Amino acid sequence: MIAKVVESNRIEPSRKLFGAVKLFPINKLGNSLVVGKYYSEEKHPISRRLHQMYQPVVGYFLKRPFFTFALAGLAMLSTIPAHQFLGKEFMPPLREGSLLYMPTALPGMSVPEASRLLQKQDEILKSFDEVESVFGKAGRANTSTDVAPLSMVETTVVLKPHREWQEKERWYSFLPDFLQPFFRPIWPDRISEEEPGSWVKTSIVLLSVPFSLVGAFWFLWILDYNVSIATWVGMIALMGLSAETGIFMLMYLDLAVNDRKSKGQMTSVSDLYSAVIEGSVNRIRPKTMIVMTAFLGLLPIMWSTGLGADVAKRVAAPMIGGLFTSFLLILLVYPVIYYEWKKQEYKMGARGF
């Protein structure tokens, strides 16, 4: 009995202490130190500034639907010449820091002759300052999987890092770095290696797909990239991102309309106009955050120089350009289409919109 009492006396204070620790507002303290003060959407300093910039713009386009649709149509038509200017390729150049050189000679070459030519070839390749090492092979290994004859040479050329490649002084060398590429084709100075519930909402969401391709094609043209499997992979991913942000805009517009309807404040077209302004303007911050998160995540790829960077750039480029134009569509054209659609419903007597 004595042992039990002593044990319980030891345990009880620890329980009280643990309870006191639990009651201490750790979460509240941590949020105040790390996150800071919480603001409502209307009072947030960033949101207020975004509202001031976006509200007059969306109001301008809402009052001019035909102008808005015409502008969006012209933007999509502009992709036709951009697509015609773009070249085509199966895959972009793979600059992985090494080359596989496989020349062939006449059949029936002797072993001494193949050895002599191989050594001479390696000597010539190693003479370039940009080459780190050369390893060549003639003939085949003692295995049934290697069927290369003596006349087929397989040479692996390992290149130095690109920053160590020598440059030649040209008449345009005094120009800034961003201007020199325009003149390199004439006098090269370095060696180079070549959830919507209706079909209307579904159609609105799908509209973001062709509009996002406007920025994708033009950005590829600016960067002088060819259309390849890598760029099409980026465009497919872009379509998903554009549809996602479009769904968010429609969701916020529906929330604003349904909220006014539940309060009995949806009785006229002017009420619908106010609801569209509220749904598009008051929620611009989360929409901007969604797009900027994807944009800032993709942008560093365009400055990458490591292995596989050339393929990664061609995947990211159409996504970066397309996010810009699809975001403009979502901010300026979506509210107009939604407003005109709901206005027609109201005029036809569908008051429960």
What would your notes on this structure say?
This protein is mostly helical. The protein folds into two domains: 45-92 and 193-347, Multidrug efflux transporter AcrB transmembrane fold; 98-160, no CATH class. Helices cover 60% and strands 5% of the residues. It has helices spanning 2-23, 26-34, 45-62, 65-77, 79-85, 111-126, 199-223, 229-262, 269-281, 284-298, 309-347; strands spanning 98-101, 131-138, 153-159. Strands 1-3-2 form a three-stranded antiparallel beta sheet, covered by helices on one side. Helix 10 runs antiparallel to helix 11 (309-347). The N and C termini lie far apart (75 Å).
Which secondary structure elements does this structure contain, and how are they paired or packed?
Layout: H1 2-23, H2 26-34, H3 45-62, H4 65-77, H5 79-85, E1 98-101, H6 111-126, E2 131-138, E3 153-159, H7 199-223, H8 229-262, H9 269-281, H10 284-298, H11 309-347
Antiparallel strand pairs: 1-3, 2-3
Helix pairs in contact: 3-9, 3-11, 4-7, 4-11, 5-7, 7-8, 7-11, 8-9, 8-11, 9-11, 10-11
CATH architecture of the largest domain: Up-down Bundle
Strand content: 5-15%
Number of strands: 3
- Find the CATH topology of the largest domain: Multidrug efflux transporter AcrB transmembrane fold
Write down the overall mean pLDDT.
77
H and E string: HHHHHEHEEHHHHH
Number of continuous helical runs: 11
Global shape: elongated
| Biggest beta sheet attributes | 3 strands, antiparallel
Kindly summarize this structure in a few lines.
The protein has eleven helices and three strands; from the N terminus they run αααααβαββααααα. By secondary structure, it is mainly alpha-helical.
